[in-house]
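Interim report to the steering committee. The following record documents the input for Secreted protein (540 residues).
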Amino acid sequence: MQPRTTRKPSQTKSGKRKSSHGRKKPPIIAITAGGLFAALILFGIMFSLRTKNGMLVIENLPADAQVMVDQENVRLRWNDGKDSATVRIKPGTRQVEVLSGGAKIAGDTVTIESGTETSITVIPRTSKDEVENRQLLTSDNPTPRLFPLDELNMPGRNEAAWVSPDGGRIYWEHSDSGGGNAEIFQAERDDLSVSFGNERSVITGKQPTLTPDELQVVFVHTEPKKFKRLYMATRSTKSDRFENAKELMQFGEGLMFNSPCISADGLALFVNARQQNDIRTTKYYVSRRTSIDAAWMPARPVDIRWNAQQQDAPLTWISMAPDEMSFLATHEMGVGRYRVLQFSRTSKTAPFESYEYLTLPGFGNVYGRSPRYSLARNELFLTAPESYAQANSAAWKGFVPKLWAIRDVDRSSIAQAEQSLTLLPAGSEWHGTVKRNWRPGPTTKDDVIFTVESRNGDQFVALINTDHGTQIRRVTGTVEGTGSLSWESSGSNVLTGSGGMSGSHHGHVKDDYIRVESNWVNSKKQKVDAVYELRRNPEQ
């Protein structure tokens, strides 16, 4: 639902108030669950007030609703259509409560200023116990739920989360209340149903985005005379700090960078850039490379049809889908009010020109910066004010941003989660290398041929041929619509029947490229790390 306007009444010649003009930042009212106040699903009830006695207009009000103002029941005057009602109240600071079925469903303190009309959005929240326990819902059709990531939200600003493909690790920016002393933090969770923990700083910087193996990070670094420059750093393992930060010059000099985003396969880097202090010059760029270890090539513009002047703000926080056919972004400032939107295009050579604001069934409109969708548990991670109810304000100045997650998101609502099943088609053949490292031990590199024998929905059966044809194993796995690829391996060599192994393999597949990170135990009980990098046979 679009935010309603707030208008200041004008007067006729007789002095009577006739119409309203002007705007005011809308306060928010939250629905309770289990007797506790919380902010979760956009319920869509809106209030507006008008002086002198004040007029409270309640839209989408339940048919059996009662309204209490300062603990006194007030008379409702139902408007045409029977979906809204009007109440007259005095201006000032008032406690407004809405009851339905005899139970309180909304309540908050509202300050009414004389001479203005104020809009208030009602947002339901989960109970405190539900937020703390973070239990998975067991319903066949769970409702999206909003959670503050309080285990990560430290004093100061917490924003710009990036989540690993398996959902087990999260990276985000933390800084003081003024945005200074920024550090990028990392935290983990062993089980997707529990909170993140073991948080620690891994590098100085802002706005992290990582490759799928989490060994490279691209980020924005603020330093004197190089305001918001783009850097990349590396590390050897996921438990190390990032080192060897180097500035990326592929996008040119004299620019300010925001919201970098590495693609799911690690081979494309999207970012918006503008000349310093001139938001009207914002453009969108992509730099590509041929492999995960190759250098980034010179950047090229991304064709996004978006009128920043007409829309009052450029697009920010672009999060590209693995097939590069759609992306999530944030529409900030007065027109967009920090709503999340989805862009799409008809082909990879076509411009991005079709978009819609993101609305989740059972939740409503989604507000916030840095939207990142994680397929591992159908979670949408966001940055929003400490009170999510303020997320749809025209400006966030003065708000302290925190990390939030909407869980149990219906993936049909996210365009990038509903891609064609033509990824990894039956009969396709992929050639490349597998790099293996015994822990501890030497690193070896072998040619590999990956052949898809069959495909049934998300499930596939493939033959993996390595070691010059002496090691052929058959695996059964899953490839999601976003290009997330995984399989669990066990059993013996197809040719000899000897040698068992077990382990997990996770990665991404695009039209012509596969990258998989593996952890498994071979027949000699040796722990092995492996990385598969494959390209589709060009003859197919």
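The first strand starts at residue 8 and ends at 11. The committee is asked to note this result when reviewing the revised timeline.
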